[in-house]
Amino acid sequence: MDYAEFVSRLNQHYDELKWLYCELYQNDMMAFRYFVDMLRRSYTDRKQELRDLDHERLADPEWFRSNRMLGMMLYVDNFAGDLQGVRVRLPYLQECGINYLHLMPLLRTVKGRSDGGYAVADFREVQPELGTMADLEALSDDCRQAGISLALDFVMNHTSEDHEWARAARAGDPVAAARYFFYDNRDIPDQFEKTVPQVFPTTAPGNFTYLEDCGRYVMTSFYPYQWDLNYANPMVFNDMTENLLYLANRGMDVIRLDAIPYIWKELGTDCRNLPQVHTLSRLIRMACEIVCPGVLLLGEVVMEPAKVAPYFGTREKPECHLLYNVTTMCSTWSCLATHDVRLLMRQMDQLSALPRSYSFQNYLRCHDDIGWGLDYPWLEQFGVKEVAHKKYLNDWFTGKWPGSRSRGELYNDDPTLGDARLCGTTASLCGMEVDEELGFLADRMLHAWMFTQSGIPVLYSGDEIAQENDYSYHDDPDKCEDSRYLHRGRFDWALARKRHDPGTIQGRVFEMLRQLETIRASQPVFCADAAFFAFPTGSDRVLGIRREREGDRLTALFNFSEEPVTLHLEGEEASDLISGRKLDLTNVELPEFGFLWALSRTD
Ligand code: GLC
Predict the structure, then answer these.
(1) What fold, for 158-228?
(2) Quick one: pLDDT at residue 1?
(3) Which of 133, 140, 276, 318 has its CA 20 to 30 A from that of 183?
(4) Is the CB of 470 under 6 A from ligand 1?
(5) Ligand 1: nearest atom to the Cα of 115
């Protein structure tokens, strides 16, 4: 064993590691020594192939910022039954051009109390119906061979009430109880409730759950069966970091830090994004840099932009490698419903002001609802009010608004705050259930827009064959309360088989995506290090984006409305990347939901 490498990486971070750890845990040196020893154990546990990959990635730290990256997220059971099934289906994913695969939670959980796998009962065991840890490792080996990076959730804010710590706590073990937030009466819970908002106001109201069998209250910010871990206890942090490194050592390339803004709780605050959360994520980053430096951290920070960017940390003290581009996603759907792109232009101005080294994961849909976290203070100047606007968006996307062809469903409708969120697949929200042709055009324009953004584009499985909503969850007692299952349907292989038939919608969408992805991968102007900014097109219906890199200039236009628009832009001669034809930007006609990728040279 080459401990010299471990020692040298540890030494590189030692002062900061010790400083932050001791500050957070009041100089608990025993806990710190345990932490360092745990890092050494985890380093020893890392197999040679993974260490080789670490070295490769250390030599090319920008590997995930290439224009060739293309992601997909999927549920193992919906897509292929189990992990072995995913191995068999890898050629399909390769045909889709995927080289980054996010597997939705697959660790042991209890049916009916699983929150889609986000209530983990054992961080080292795969859900038996999906396979075993050995199957997961075998899949990761296959993926590595195929050049596909694997991402897995690390659900760190809470455990399932069925986790062994929770069971021991419930049975009266005080050491186990100290891993959670346990209270004998409602005094402290009531104080928390005064300042802490609710994550699931309708499906899981309140932030505490009363445990009848032991007569105590436990903090449950999400569902009542998801018990919040207390990270003020260093044993929790030590053991959870060890669990994270265990998964990294099974061959995961990207670890998604689920619900990270929530992991530190403090009375009198909203318990979101507290400074200690950043100390913890910095400590986790250093732990990975010591044990598995090839592994990336993807922060799940579903918050407004000002709260998101701090999770990148600073240049000298980085935290997450990747963050979700959540505001762009929400703003995109909002602009589709209003046929007005000014909100996205504003959002692009904010994004292009960030350092180009920040890397985002871009997406149109994922397994969660759309939360309408828009820039309301800015929208106010146009007379747009938060509650009324959310109501409009929800009416539009549930098809209630006259003229809308969208077919979504509400999620966690909170009538007191007027704060409903929204569910549905990309195809259904684009209106394909009602009008296939217009739905296709909107779907194509939105995907082209997603591929234009800097970062890693991630498709939601099923979108490549325009899969529509799955209404069958209404009849499943374990799912019917949670409308997110509307867009968590089984992957339809019968539809997927039509993907090569250009006469079908599946064939058209599949081919269209392949074309866009291939162009993106072949043009360096799509690299994450390109300059990227929005420009006024003369029409509030058309979003204009420029990307510039080494003399290449991409002018991208997206018509968010159902009306054709003619634009007169300044500009040099360009070529249309889709048709290959020469273009005159001084006179551009964009049909309904049309888009354009025009490439020119600035020199
Ligand atoms: C994250 C997941 C979501 C889950 C929640 C609780 O936000 O994306 O699906 O319900 O965490 O773990």
Answers:
(1) Oligo-1,6-glucosidase; domain 2 (3.90.400)
(2) 60
(3) 276
(4) no
(5) 10
